[in-house]
């Protein structure tokens, strides 16, 4: 029996969490794991804790039961998914600390072995793909398959990023066989944007500039920009992807405010630059072609620091 199966068997109470600002892979993997466990044993207690759940993911089974705030509870087993370090699950860190066993499942190259058990496959496109490796494909329900498919769609940018492999497509194909409605999931969770999200994209494109002979594109949104269009950080997914596909660009950088003194830095590269190593220099992390970190200072300072790091690699 694998560690995974053994730990689930012996735990009476199980909790699952993922990283702050949860994305499709984070939400899909947390809900997919919950569903897989419940499909095998409906009497198990399996609670999911996430900081927020964007409206487009609320159709996934179990999304309505997600706890948005920590509780004063001690679990036998706590899964931490799609998350490479403790500072990424801050709101629930105390709860995770109190749990008897911490089991981490992830695909971030920057994950150095979090928890008592840690399964990390940096070759996997998504944490949902790592779950496909662990789960018995014959025992995945349609509800579980929808969660896993959503996660893979999001972390591969609909099967187009360089992390998409033959294995990714095979797992996705197996999930489709369970009856997943791929057009609906792709359109309604990935491509569809609210009016406010489109305004944020438009503003970010107007704020963008080309640097280093057009090899780098940098953009930002200020708190004033966000306030003006009533947008929040949850409305900014996908902006970095639009920047990255600008003709001639190797690396895209996008900043948005976290606090009055700090900015979230998102980076994507096309073929050359290892953005994960740059993010790690600033205590962030991610993957070779998609990474992020939080930095203190003015937009101008942060831009210059990041541009010089990218330039060293070009
Ligand atoms: P994002 O730019 O937020 O879409 O993130 C790109 C990738 O980098 C994702 O896989 C994130 O999980 C990871 N990442 C982003 N920000 C951080 C951070 N502050 N620390 C560690 N990993 C991060
Ligand atoms: Mn993620
Ligand atoms: Mn992921």
Give an overview in words.
The chain has 2 domains: 3-191, Alpha-Beta Complex (inorganic pyrophosphatase (n-terminal core)), CATH 3.90.1640.10; 195-313, Diaminopimelate Epimerase, Chain A, domain 1, CATH 3.10.310.30. A 6-stranded mixed sheet has the order 6-7-8-9-11-10, with helices on both faces. Helix 2 (24-40) runs antiparallel to helix 5 and helix 4 (127-134) crosses helix 5. Helices cover 39% and strands 19% of the residues. The mean pLDDT is 96. With 314 residues, it is α/β, with parallel strands linked by helices. The protein has helices at 3-10, 24-40, 93-98, 127-134, 142-155, 166-177, 182-191, 195-206, 223-228, 239-244, 275-281, 299-313; strands at residues 13-17, 45-49, 77-81, 101-106, 117-120, 209-211, 216-220, 251-259, 262-269, 285-286, 290-296. The chain binds adenosine monophosphate (AMP) and manganese (II) ion (2 copies). Residues 19, 84, 88, 108, 240, 266, 284-287, 290-294 line the site of adenosine monophosphate.
């Amino acid at each position: 029996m694998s560690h995974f199966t053994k730990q689930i068997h012996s735990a009476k109470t199980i909790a699952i969490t993922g990283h702050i600002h949860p994305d499709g892979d984070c939400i899909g993997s947390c809900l997919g794991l919950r569903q897989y466990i419940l499909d095998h044993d409906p009497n198990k207690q399996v609670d999911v804790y996430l900081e927020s759940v964007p409206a487009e993911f609320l159709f996934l089974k179990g999304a309505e039961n997600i706890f948005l705030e920590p509780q004063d509870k001690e679990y036998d087993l706590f899964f931490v998914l799609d998350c490479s370090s403790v500072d990424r699950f801050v709101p629930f860190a105390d709860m995770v600390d109190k749990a008897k066993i911490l089991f981490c499942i992830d695909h971030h190259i920057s994950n150095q072995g979090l928890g008592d058990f840690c399964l990390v496959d940096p070759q996997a496109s998504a944490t949902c793909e790592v779950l496909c490796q662990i789960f018995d494909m014959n025992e995945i329900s349609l509800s579980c398959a929808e969660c896993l498919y959503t996660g893979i769609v999001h972390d591969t940018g609909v099967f187009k990023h360089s992390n998409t492999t033959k294995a990714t497509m095979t797992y996705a194909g197996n999930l489709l066989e369970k009856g997943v409605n791929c057009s609906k999931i792709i359109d309604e969770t990935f491509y569809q944007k609210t009016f406010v999200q489109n305004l944020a994209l438009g503003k970010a494109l107007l704020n963008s500039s080309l640097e280093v002979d057009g090899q780098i594109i940098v953009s930002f949104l200020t708190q004033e920009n966000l306030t003006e269009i009533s947008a929040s950080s949850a409305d900014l997914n996908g902006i970095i992807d639009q920047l990255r596909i600008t003709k001639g660009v190797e690396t895209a950088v996008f900043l948005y405010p976290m606090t009055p003194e700090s900015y979230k830095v998102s980076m994507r590269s096309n073929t050359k630059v290892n953005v994960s190593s740059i993010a790690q220099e600033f205590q962030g992390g991610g993957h070779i072609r998609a990474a992020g970190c939080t930095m203190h200072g003015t937009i101008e300072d942060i831009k210059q620091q990041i541009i010089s790091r990218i330039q060293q690699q070009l």
